[in-house]
């Protein structure tokens, strides 16, 4: 009988620590609901004390999620632990996740604390967390570089203090599969009362070994695996949930382990994370990359035609990927349209689907073929998860290599038309400056990129922008066959997101 192993998703906490990957409250809620559909066991929703925005997001996730445990990270400090509990206490199954570094280098230079002090603080803070919450996870940060007998001592102390889960992080992605296997096995064999707690592992990808290390730990008897969607996370990222889940699923013969993961929700979740964070998925990424199920060469195609198992060790359908190329056209109906949106990770209210369906028909009249990426761009641009504070009326650009680029932009705000003119370094810069004049500034442009969304002469250009206000980043996307129009729409989209978030915070 296969053993069950738990999946702890930290996309909303460690994943969000990826540079440029921050999400706002609505986005975090949307992702948490998708993680619930994916059936992860634990959602680490954030680090409650890090900022008021983080606190609000952890609390909102705790209130919304019914079927997963919800955790908040906390340093081994009373104020952190209190804040974490204040946010997660609304969950059906709340967890406080407290941590402290145990390696010599972290204790000496970062914490400036002796082994005795760290041991005592670990014990005391788990004990304190237990007075608030019955489920307490303790992480020995940088465990893989910790002196082993000290690690045993700390783990014994926190288990005695009531920790329900002990996590053994490879914080800096330093270990290797053989070494990590032995570490987990040694912990199982040498730590007193280890069977009273779950053994969790948390791997980073600095050497590209995060998933391999996680799987080695699973074989050695770890009972909880920490990971993120698309492997996003601090530096080179965390172990990728989709790779772990599909490795365990595909190699049941080897691991004999089962998870609760609903694998057909993997692809939608991956797309959603990419959209929300603005972090593109490399084409050759395992499981969820564009090429993961593409067969280019003749011998492979011949093999596939003869029998799919010649070159496919899992089916695209098993991760929720169905017919990912040409999808819809102008004769498609609402049901097929909504079904495709679900596959792409968008679960929208009926009125939102109806609104988008009208837009889709307009696009389908212009474009012969509608691809997934056209649909994603449409949803993002039409901003179904945010309020439309302002929208583009019209714009005129005067540009060339011998004149100063000038833009006239007219926006519609509360049915009022407002027009401004500005010059810039190029047509896009001029248009953004004209928009700044209308909406006022106080935010800055952090990033701007332009890509072709699909192939062919009617391919659409997709602009993506990131703007920053009060340390929060807002992503905007815009799509058009005209790249200046795409850029303007992306900028307005980001501004609308920012204004929606500010309105939410005021409520
Ligand atoms: C491995 C990981 O992923 S750890 C999680 C990383 N995530 C984050 O850091 C989230 C974002 N962080 C933040 O917003 C801020 O760093 C905060 C709010 C948490 C803390 O901010 P500040 O109080 O300004 O402290 P700052 O970040 O500069 O320094 C960290 C302090 O916490 C201490 N500290 C670090 N880890 C721990 C711990 N686990 N337990 C107790 N104290 C700790 C450090 O020694 C330092 O203390 P000092 O101020 O007495 O020197
Ligand atoms: C806080 C801990 C679990 C962490 O993220 C790490 O050590 O990488
Ligand atoms: Mg980490």
From TrEMBL:
Catalysed reactions, semicolon-separated: 3-methyl-2-oxobutanoate + acetyl-CoA + H2O = (2S)-2-isopropylmalate + CoA + H(+)
Binding, Mn(2+): 14, 202, 204, 238
Entries under InterPro entries matching the protein: 2-IPM_HCS-like, 2-isopropylmalate_synth_dimer, AIPM/Hcit_synth_CS, Aldolase_TIM, LeuA/HCS_post-cat, LeuA_allosteric_dom_sf, LeuA_bact_synth, PYR_CT
PROSITE patterns per UniProt: AIPM_HOMOCIT_SYNTH_1, AIPM_HOMOCIT_SYNTH_2, PYR_CT
Metal-binding as UniProt keyword: yes
EC top class named in words: transferase
Matching SMART domains: LeuA_dimer (SM00917)
UniProt cofactor(s): Mn(2+)
GO molecular function: 2-isopropylmalate synthase activity; acetyl-CoA C-acetyltransferase activity; manganese ion binding
GO process annotations (BP): L-leucine biosynthetic process
Annotated Pyruvate carboxyltransferase domain residues: 5-267
UniProt subunit comment: Homodimer.
Protein name (database record): 2-isopropylmalate synthase
Species assigned in the record: Clostridium formicaceticum
Taxonomic lineage of the native organism: Bacteria, Bacillati, Bacillota, Clostridia, Eubacteriales
Name of the encoding gene: leuA_2
């Amino acid at each position: 009988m296969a053993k069950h192993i738990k999946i702890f998703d930290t996309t909303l906490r460690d994943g969000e620590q990826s540079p440029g990957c921050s999400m706002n409250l609505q986005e975090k809620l949307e992702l948490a609901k998708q993680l619930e559909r994916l059936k992860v066991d634990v959602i680490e929703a954030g680090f409650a004390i890090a900022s008021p925005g983080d606190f609000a997001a952890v609390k909102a996730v705790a209130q919304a999620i019914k079927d997963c445990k919800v955790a908040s990270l906390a340093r081994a400090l009373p104020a952190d632990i209190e804040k974490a509990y204040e946010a997660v206490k609304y969950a059906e199954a709340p967890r406080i996740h407290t941590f402290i570094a145990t390696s010599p280098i972290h204790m000496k230079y970062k914490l400036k604390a002796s082994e005795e002090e760290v041991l005592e603080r670990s014990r005391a803070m788990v004990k304190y967390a237990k007075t608030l919450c019955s489920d307490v996870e303790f992480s020995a940060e940088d465990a893989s570089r910790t002196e082993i007998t000290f690690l045993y001592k700390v783990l014994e102390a926190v288990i005695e203090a009531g920790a329900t889960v002990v996590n053994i992080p490879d914080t800096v992605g330093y270990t290797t599969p053989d070494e990590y296997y032995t570490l987990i096995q040694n912990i199982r064999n040498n730590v007193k009362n280890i069977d009273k707690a779950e053994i969790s592992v948390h791997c980073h990808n600095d050497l590209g070994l995060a998933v391999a290390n996680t799987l080695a730990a699973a074989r050695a008897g770890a009972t909880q695996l920490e990971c993120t969607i698309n492997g996003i996370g601090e530096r080179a990222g965390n172990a990728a949930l989709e790779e772990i889940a599909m490795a365990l699923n595909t190699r049941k013969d080897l691991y004999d382990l089962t998870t609760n993961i609903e694998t057909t929700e993997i692809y939608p979740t991956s797309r959603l994370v990419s959209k929300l964070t603005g972090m593109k998925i490399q084409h050759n990424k395992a499981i969820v990359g564009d090429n993961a199920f593409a067969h280019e060469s003749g011998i492979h195609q011949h093999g596939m035609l003869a029998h799919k198992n010649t070159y496919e060790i899992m089916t695209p359908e098993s991760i929720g990927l169905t017919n990912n190329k040409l999808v819809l056209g102008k004769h498609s109906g609402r049901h097929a349209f909504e079904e495709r949106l679900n596959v792409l990770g968008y679960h929208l209210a009926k009125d939102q689907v109806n609104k988008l369906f009208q837009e889709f028909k307009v696009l389908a009249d212009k474009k012969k073929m509608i691809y997934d990426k056209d649909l994603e761009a449409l949803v993002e641009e039409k901003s179904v998860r945010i309020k439309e504070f302002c929208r583009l009326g019209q714009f005129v650009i005067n540009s060339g290599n011998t004149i100063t680029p000038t833009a006239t932009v007219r926006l519609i705000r509360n049915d009022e038309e407002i027009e401004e003119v500005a010059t810039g370094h190029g047509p896009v810069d001029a248009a953004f400056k004209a928009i700044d004049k209308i909406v006022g500034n106080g935010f800055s442009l952090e990033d701007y990129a332009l890509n072709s969304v699909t192939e062919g002469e009617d391919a659409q250009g997709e602009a993506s922008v990131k703007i920053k206000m009060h340390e929060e980043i807002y992503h905007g996307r815009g799509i058009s066959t005209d790249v200046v129009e795409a850029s303007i729409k992306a900028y307005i989209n980001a501004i609308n997101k920012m204004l929606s978030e500010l309105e939410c915070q005021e409520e």
